[in-house]
Task: inverse folding
């Protein structure tokens, strides 16, 4: 299971931290990603973090340099630290597990999403 | 870039739906998946590896294709299938198509 939290209303230029708690899998090996969806729009990839052993982190172009993804394996939790927020960042933010076990790569489990609204 | 067509598909229950996903460059089928999203809900995995149904997905859903052209087919639409469908590729970055809305 995947469960996001931390969304809310934030002013332009502000910061917010989202959390994603994961259960039911070996978290230390899990690759996790954040995907967002602006109101009435499609899905947009935000960031990916592979296992700590692999150490790979990548970001989508719109958030590079402003957002930071991290993980705490002791808490089975992934975080998304968001800085310099603008109205363009208003969206539902989904956390998802990247399933790679079968040699196929896909987002097998998604959280219910957490809404971030950037507005003055 | 993944381009989905059509943008909207207007069909009736019982009809067949054919959704297209075209990649701007050849991709491995292992990294191509399809998701269904209903209003107010998170996306749900339907197909991975371009043609493998996820656990619990009914047999009326099927995926096919390779290289740059992939297809999601719903053989006989049921009311709960009217939704938005996204294709997705895992690569150097994770990419989604723009979505196809299947409406009644």
Result:
């Amino acid at each position: 299971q995947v469960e996001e939290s931390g969304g809310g209303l934030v002013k332009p230029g502000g910061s917010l931290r989202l959390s994603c708690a994961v259960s039911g899998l070996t978290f230390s090996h899990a690759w996790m990603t954040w995907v967002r969806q602006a109101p009435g729009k499609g899905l947009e990839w935000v960031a990916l973090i592979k296992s700590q052993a692999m150490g790979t982190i990548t970001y989508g172009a719109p958030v590079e340099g402003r957002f930071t993804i991290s993980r705490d394996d002791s808490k089975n939790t992934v975080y998304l630290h968001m800085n310099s927020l603008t109205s363009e960042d208003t969206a539902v933010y989904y956390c998802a597990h990247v399933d790679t076990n079968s040699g196929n790569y896909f987002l097998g489990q998604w959280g219910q999403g957490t809404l971030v609204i950037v507005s003055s | 870039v993944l381009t989905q067509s059509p943008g909207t598909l207007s069909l009736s229950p019982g009809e067949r739906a054919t959704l297209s996903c075209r990649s701007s460059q050849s991709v491995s089928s292992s990294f191509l998946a399809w998701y269904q999203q209903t209003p107010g809900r998170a996306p749900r995995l339907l197909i991975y590896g371009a043609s493998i149904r996820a656990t619990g997905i009914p047999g009326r859903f099927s995926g096919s294709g390779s290289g740059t052209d992939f297809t999601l087919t719903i053989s006989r639409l049921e009311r709960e299938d009217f939704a938005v469908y996204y294709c997705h590729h895992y690569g150097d970055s994770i990419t989604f198509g723009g979505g196809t809305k299947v409406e009644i």
